Amino acid sequence: MKPMVNRFVIALALSSGMSTVFGQSNDAADKALTQLTEGNFKQAKTLATAAMSANPYGSLAYAIHGRALAAENDLAGAQTYLEKAIKMSPNNGVYYAFEGANLKNQHQDAAAGKAYDKALKLLAAPASALEYYARGSVYEAQKKEEAALVDYTKALELNPRFALCYIKRGRIYENRKQADAALTEYSKAIGINPAYASPYFLRGNIYYEQQQYDAAITDFSKAVELDPKDVDALFNRGVMYKKKGNYDQALADYAKVLTITPNDASVYGNRGNVYLMQDKASLAFSDYTQAIKLDPNKASYRVSRGNIYQRWEQVDSAFNEYNRAIALDPQYADAYLERGNIYLNKQQYEPALADFNKVIAIDPHSSNGYLNRGVVHHDKQQYAEAIDDYTKAIEADPKNMLAYLNRADAYEATGNNKLANADRKKYADLGGKLSATAANTRKEIYPKGTFDPKLAEAALGRGLSKIVGRACTKKDGLIFSAAGVKVVLLPVTPYLEEWYELREKKEGKNTSVFMSKEANQYAITAISGSDGRFAFEGLKPGKYFIQLIHSFNQRKTARIYTGSDSWQNGPVREITNYYYDQDYLVARSQRLEKFVEIKEDGETKKITLANGLIKTCDF
């Protein structure tokens, strides 16, 4: 089961600048603007309220108050104050930039676009850090990252303590996968204002992506310390605790989130995962069910609940959950993976293969997708394809223990014991446990190649030719007809040729070489008569391999000693020994086989299957 996707909510970044740009501010407004610049939103709102009381017509105070409300996610209240600021100063591009961001956060994209267009016209020639910041935020919203980065950098040149610009630049670097540069930006923002929660949260997210879980927990904890109701920091810290196996601490964080946002489906989903890791399946099931109730369109919750059904061996219910998940999200790989496992367990190989192929199509780096597809090929004794898939699983995840173990079995099945032993050692090195077993003195190996059923089926198509023959075995000068024996005809394919060549090289006292079960299914069988005669009719031109195992009992006679008499004949002592003849049976088994080629349709081939030249056995 794949862990629930973590949510990482980015705190709303606000703008700041120098109040002297507006020409209608007071000391309280200047101070409010400074606090806003450095990320102290509560102080900025308090000072802006004081500024509005001192000067009811100062537009800057209304704009700052609106942006502070936006930081608290009071978007409707923020809109009211921003509209007042614009009404007082209709030619101020910064206010329109603020309004555009607020409207976008309310998903009013059309209105936001108009506000942004107005802002760009009015900010054609920025003159302050705030104006560069405001224009940069518009460029960023329009996905013009390079232009935004230039403006944020210019704003920082004019005001090096503009913490929000560092946040904005950090986000752009993060989008560009430049994690180290983003970390530097967030750390600079913290250096300016250690009481600013947002950069701790954002830096914690990067530490998580880098699997630096302790560092991430430290940053999320600091964000929670600064804002105890920061549900996103609490949630993400819970995810980190889960990653580290600190399940009780993870549960405590999820519980705190639910006291603040009791209808958050993602919390129930993640908490269900923790319960499952603690083998508390009933509690996990309850949480997954609640998550589905709150968010019925989330495919992952269906898969998670399906996994519980699987654990309880309620396979039909699990199958239904996976089908619902796929209907909700046709690109959700885990649903196909789990449904494919059900097909695989039922030996329904074709639908299983289709599901695992879908997993790999969605996620070409899915280690488990390749692993499970390899199992399908393995079960079908298609060892070359199985080994190839296990290798791809290992390339995608070098710590996938099962891929090493399964590949070892596949190598062993094809006679490559050296590679098999190397893979088993790697499995053990990764923590896998290998139990001692009894030595198998006789090995069974298979061709590495893949059998092509379509090729075999085509070769067995209907024709006008036939093969007739007789089978005999010669032992101790006696001729034994193969009476009532099953005779098998197989089409000669590359797979059969590989098998035959492997058998010629490897078969011996301790080694048997077999074809796959599937390959053996594409055969025609006949039963020989009392004189060993058999026939195959309706064949088309092509090359065939005919084989039978002639098992019979050979009657032999042994002279059994029963005793003796002795007497004295003058000076000579004479002895007479007594014997009788006893018949006994000796079990014999002889493999008889031959390659036969039909060149023309309508041709009749006559063959003899025997262990040498037996003239009386000719057809």
UniProtKB/TrEMBL annotation:
SUPFAM superfamilies: HCP-like (SSF81901), Hypothetical protein PA1324 (SSF117074), TPR-like (SSF48452)
Signal sequence coordinates: 1-23
Keyword Protein transport set for record: no
Gene3D superfamilies, alphabetized: Tetratricopeptide repeat domain (1.25.40.10)
Keywords attached to this entry: Repeat, Signal, TPR repeat
InterPro entries from the UniProt entry: TPR-like_helical_dom_sf, TPR_rpt, Ycf3
TPR repeats: 59-92, 129-162, 163-196, 197-230, 231-264, 265-298, 299-332, 333-366, 367-400
Name used for this protein in its record: Tetratricopeptide repeat protein
The organism's taxonomic lineage, starting at the top: Bacteria, Pseudomonadati, Bacteroidota, Chitinophagia, Chitinophagales
